[in-house]
Amino acid sequence: MIRFCLNGEWIEETSFDPSWTILAYMRTKAMQLSVKEGCAGGDCGACSVLVGEANSHGAVQYLAVNACIALLGSLDGKYIITVEGLSDGEQLHPAQQAIVDHHGSQCGFCTPGIVTSLAALYHNQGGNSPSDHEIHDALSGNLCRCTGYRPIIEAAKAMNNYPAPHAGAPVLSNVVGHFDPSAPNEGGEAVVDHQGRKLFIPQDEQQLASILAQHPRATIWAGGTDLGLEISQQFKQFDVLVSLHKVASLTDVSENNEHVRFGAMVTYHKSHSVLQQHFPSFAQLLERIGSRQIRNLGTLGGNVANGSPIGDTPPVFFALNARVEIASSRGVREVAIEDFFKGYKQTDLQAGEYLKSIIVPKLTAQQSLHVFKVSKRKEDDISAVLMAARIERDGNTIKEARIACGGMAATPLRARDTEAALNGQPLQLASFEAASEHIKNDYSPITDVRASDAYRLNVAANLVIKTGLASCDKAGVK
């Protein structure tokens, strides 16, 4: 059984297809027909809903997510609000009323998802009017083909001019009044069995390890922003799914003087503030990964364990010399992240194992990190080339360069020949210009829909030079 609160009403579901997405459930059983399927890939935002869970202060925080690629099982113990649940009787939510008054809808297909994203922005701003950047960021995952964004943005700017819903309540009180700390299934893990296919929802790592020991070939579901496409677009059915969303220890972020440790289930959204403090260029990259809805679901561990050659975070972890913890019922082992990737979509994870955490060394005063993403669109697009470089200097000499690229090979890959050309050289632009010629020795990229092989090599070489400009500027070298 799973239990979740939909628009203020607690619902228990005991029999459903483990591969059901939230969208499939909303449209076929819950009859919340505002949740639309547009792209079925987490791009257009027509399926956006609000998903909330209690934070450390006991309040419920709501984030917009794509219902088309999120598992229904991932709602266990959580709160979900669709557009139907935003209004208070006849009183529309400020986001709804502003869209009406500013003519922010024409055909209306995209409107529920846009309203959902604006409602998340409204409630997470703490009563402050959002900036243009915050509005654009909130709407980056919502595509409207006919209205045009001017009236939608005007509506976003006007939301705070309307009376707050629910007599000035700071959060969505139609569900907070029903908040029940014991609502999630406590004790044993939740199990859904439907026509021979199973979904396990462990409560902790001990249960997780035990499940994987019994089902070593199970498919592990973290954020699901990539895996969900196999359900929504390829109509794949999984025999055994294990959802990690309730394993609290995997969502922890901790640090000491030497490193930051990210649990594998830490989302892009949650990691941003920590990365901003210690690795600002990494934090800037996150704003280029998917949309707000994707970053609310996607996890750092999922991006690594997926084994994709175009995952955006692995090259950064390569450059930072990160390590990963891999766990199972047999114990925990630690592996350098560049040894974790074995081939195209192949990793060092063995049957019955799961990715536990990512350990990232902090930068020293002599080190700088530079991250560059090149894609056809600025937002919500796959990288043609992603380069991350950590440059360590000793005075005005390059002591060590660690450079890694994504999108250039079957796995994320270090540019070792380019690194060797930089190590020991003067910290000046000419050193990076000379080293950029070595990129062609490090990579033999393919030509695909995103870029040609020649373009990728040219871009990567130019990014080495751009790294030099940034490194020299940071060190104050002319």
What descriptors fit this protein?
478 residues; alpha+beta; five-stranded mixed beta sheet
| Coarse structural class | alpha+beta
- Shape, principal axes of CA atoms: globular
> Distance N terminus to C terminus?
64 Å
Biggest pleated-sheet summary: 5 strands, mixed
Q: What amount of the residues lies in strands?
A: 15-25%
**Helical amount:** 25-40%
Low-pLDDT parts are 167-171, 173-179
Query: Roughly what is the average pLDDT, rounded to an integer?
Result: 91
Side-by-side strand order of the widest sheet: 2-1-5-3-4
Number of helical stretches of at least 4 residues = 19
Q: Would you kindly provide a written description of the structure presented here, covering whatever features stand out?
A:
The protein has 478 residues and is of the alpha+beta class. The protein has 19 helices and 20 strands. It has helices at 22-28, 94-101, 111-124, 132-138, 149-158, 165-168, 173-176, 205-214, 228-232, 268-278, 280-286, 292-297, 300-305, 313-319, 337-340, 416-422, 429-435, 439-442, 453-475, and strands spanning 2-6, 9-13, 48-54, 60-66, 79-81, 190-194, 197-201, 219-221, 240-243, 253-255, 259-263, 323-328, 331-336, 341-343, 346-347, 354-361, 367-374, 385-394, 397-406, 413-414.
